[in-house]
Amino acid sequence: xxxxxxxxxxxxxxxxxxxxxxxxxxxxxxxxxxxxxxxxxxxxxxxxxxxxxxxxxxxxxxxxxxxxxxxxxxxxxxxxxxxxxxxxxxxxxxxxxxxxxxxxxxxxxxxxxxxxxxxxxxxxxxxxxxxxxxxxxxxxxxxxxxxxxxxxxxxxxxxxxxxxxxxxxxxxxxxxxxxxxxxxxxxxxxxxxxxxxxxxxxxxxxxxxxxxxxxxxxxxxxxxxxxxxxxxxxxxxxxxxxxxxxx
Length: 247
Known about the structure:
Belongs to the RNA methyltransferase RsmE family. By secondary structure, the chain is α/β, with parallel strands linked by helices.
């Protein structure tokens, strides 16, 4: 089994052969929940592509341990990158979408309040919900042993999503009535891929027209209709395989 991953603020001053202290909530999780002991392997990451690989040198109390760093590893920047614009699902299915997309390997997630979204993020609820999505991405990043965690952006309006799509190297709207399958779409070898996942009620005709003007065609995934909370994960997996990032 691969070594567990814990998040630290920075690895800027860490060097192989040195030590690093893990404390606070992450230290408590390592000591009191995971019950790590001296000699066990761990990975500490900043979530931005760098990981300090080492072993537990000492455990202090219930929330502090010292790691002897054996080596630093840096992940290569992914290319092409995959961004999913996720319409706000009902209930806790938004966190489910973020969790599974992160585990699969998505690079960025953009919350979108589509016209047919039942859920609306306003005021304090918006800040709280966005915080949950970002916390979910962090935890899923650690669970899936990633060194680079996906960015969860601030929510975008439909017009802002159109601007994002216009700047992409490949843009697509996942739509059950799309005439072309995503599995055969011509993809760029590098740059940025942006996918739009609509809400339970679907992407409205007005939104489809606006996104088409921005260069995003509708594509279908398969013969079955996926829920909004699972479509982004399925599409990400498909593209990771097709672009060679899973090779």
